[in-house]
Each structure stands twice: as structure tokens, then as C-alpha cells.
Amino acid sequence: MTKITLSGVNKSFGANFPVIRGVDLTIDDGEFCVFLGPSGCGKSTLLRMVAGLETAYTGQIQIGDRVVDKVEPADREVAMVFQNYALYPHMTVYDNMAFGLRQAKTAKDEIERRVKEAARILQIEPLLDRMPKALSGGQRQRVAIGRAIVRQPKVFLFDEPLSNLDAALRVHMRSEIATLHRNFPAASMIYVTHDQTEAMALADKIVLLHAGKDMLKHGSIAQVGKPLDLYHRPRNLFVAGFLGSPTMNFLEASFVAQEPAGARVVLKGGEEIVVPVDGSALASGAPVTLGVRPEHLAPVAAPGAQTLTRKVSAVEHFGEYSFVYLDGGTPAPLIAKVPGDGGVKAGDSATYQAPADCCHLFDADGLALNH
Ligand code: ATP
């Protein structure tokens, strides 16, 4: 049993600085769960609480069927991999990996068996006699992961393990971590990152934590779900604006009326759009925000129903696709991600249409209206 349950967890640093608010969360047996959010939202703190490295909190944390709030980190059957690798500089790779097992008085031949097996899995067998300073960043991170593997933990905890690697190596190590998850299907994994691509690629479940202007929500869960659920069905403006690159376009609008096909809204530019959601609780004229992802805006020849016409302020070409920047987004310019060269240039007027079911509508509190 490696299910992890957090119930009503709150944590403050000092009396007036809440960093984690009311977190209720279950991570199932063998699940790969990613804590995602902007810098400072509290994701590392939450991970360290599961590890036992942060105490002094209210609520309860359970690993398997054991409440661990008072259990020492070494006795939680978790292994943590840190961003800065945290290798002992004066020990060889072998000794770094064996260290925890020696402390736990594991038999010598069992230590050797486990270290060699982990080294084989991570393809670092030729490095076992090297010192950490003679390793590349990616090799160091493999050793750090190896040190976690040899402990045969029930739970792997990763705190931004790839942040110190260059972009290409990050992509490579990401796929190695996915392989690690497949090799240890019984172990649950929690992985902290602020990189949405890593989260989307690795997670069975994403926990997106709030941070930002609204201090009352800081450190609370904005949404939990499968990566594509968060992408296609964001519950609020924060989630909608965090996932996706470039991020979702937001347009100020007013609610007109609920129709059989959905909620009719009018944009600042005067265009009317029907979004297939239930807006019947809204008053006529209520302010709403229309959300459309850049990749869902397709060029059309002429204005018509469900279209948007704006002046092009700039175009960026990337070969396979282009970003067309349009006047009139809130607060940033609108972006359409279109195939090829986009077919327009700065100064042109261009018209785009999004499939109705790719349009999102948010009320004045930033909550998504249901599709
Ligand atoms: P990042 O992606 O930048 O690492 P994070 O989401 O992991 O951010 P945390 O490291 O959990 O965020 O920190 C959450 C907040 O708590 C931050 O504002 C941070 O400055 C603060 N904080 C973290 N540790 C301490 C501490 N020991 N004492 C006081 N404040 C702290």
C-alpha cells in the first residue's frame, strides 16, 4: 500500500505567512503525481512535508495506512531526489549510492547487489568508481536517482530534479524518469516542477497550486486532474492561464442571453459569440471573460458568425507554424498559432474563428462555466 493521503493540511512560516492552505489530496498506489505551480506557490514545501522535512503544520498526512505526522523522515519509506543532487563530494559514485544502506546496516553483499542493479538500470555502471566532480550534470542526477532506487522506497519524491540541466538533457532525463516509473510500478511518485511541459509529459495526475495576486488563495489547490483534463477543462482563469504555451487568450465580454446552443456573449469589438456552456445564472450584461487557446484560432476568409477580426500587430515565423499577434486581448495581445507563415503581415486586418467547443467562458469571479 503506497497510497498517500493529505487531509486538511495547512502550513505557515511565522504567524502571518500561510504557504499551504487547506490541502486535501489522495495520491493512489503507483500513481505519478506532479505538484505544479508558479515559483513560490508552496509546491516544494508540500513535498517536504510528505518527506518529513517540514513539520509544524496542521492536518494529517498518511502514507499507506500509517499516519506519518510524527514519523521521522528516515522511517517513512520515502526517498527524495533533490534539484542540486546533494551528492557527497568526497565519496565515489558507488559509496554515494551505498551510503544510506550502510547506515541502515544492510548486509554488504545485498548492498552490492542493489547498487549494481540500480547502476545497470540507470546505465552508470562504468561510473561507479568516479568522484561526483568528474561527472556531468546528467550523470550526477542519475547517481542521485540511483541513491533513491537502492533504498527500494514505497514513495519516490522528486524536487525539480531536472532544473539544473540544459534543455536537451532535460528532455532526455524526463523520458528516463518516465521509464523509472514503469520499472517501479508499485511505487508512488510525487514530482515537483514549475515546468508545465514536464508536468504534462510525466503526470498521471497534476496538482496545480495557486499563486499570484489573490493572496487568499495562495498555496491552495487550483485544480487536480489528469493533464488533458486541466488543459481542456480548466476550472478557473488561473488554471486556464497557466497551462498552454503561448497561454490562452482572454477577451473581455458581456453576457447577452442563454440560448439553446449556449451562452451568447458580446465582445468589446462588437462581435457576438455563442459558447456552448450554461450561463443561465448570469444577469444580462454581466461581465464575463472569453478564453480561446492560440492553436484553436483558425484563419477564415471573411467575418461571419463566431469570428473575430483584429489588426495584426506582429508575426513570428517558426517554419512549421507562426504566431500572429492581434490587437485587443486582455491584458496581453491576442495570439493565433497558425500553420506555415500565417498568410498575413503586420498592419493587415485578419479574421479568425474558433470551434465553439474550444471556447471557454469565465464569470466575474474567474470561475469556468460548465460545458
Ligand atoms: P520554487 O518553484 O521557486 O521553488 P515553490 O512553489 O517550491 O517555489 P516553496 O519553496 O514551497 O515554493 O516556498 C513557498 C513560500 O514559502 C515561498 O514564498 C518561500 O519564500 C517561503 N518559504 C519556504 N521555506 C521557508 C522557510 N524555511 N522560512 C520562511 N519562508 C519560507
From TrEMBL:
One of its GO terms (molecular function) is ABC-type maltose transporter activity. Keywords: ATP-binding, Cell inner membrane, Cell membrane, Membrane, Nucleotide-binding, Transport. SMART domains: AAA. InterPro entries: AAA+_ATPase, ABC_transporter-like_ATP-bd, ABC_transporter-like_CS, ABC_transpr_MalK-like, ABC_transpr_MalK/UgpC-like, Mo/tungstate-bd_C_term_dom, NA-bd_OB-fold, OB_MalK-like. Coiled coil: none annotated. One of its GO terms (cellular component) is maltose transport complex. It is a peripheral membrane protein. CDD domains: ABC_MalK_N. It is found in: Cell inner membrane. Residues 4-243 form the ABC transporter domain. Belongs to the ABC transporter superfamily. This is ABC transporter.
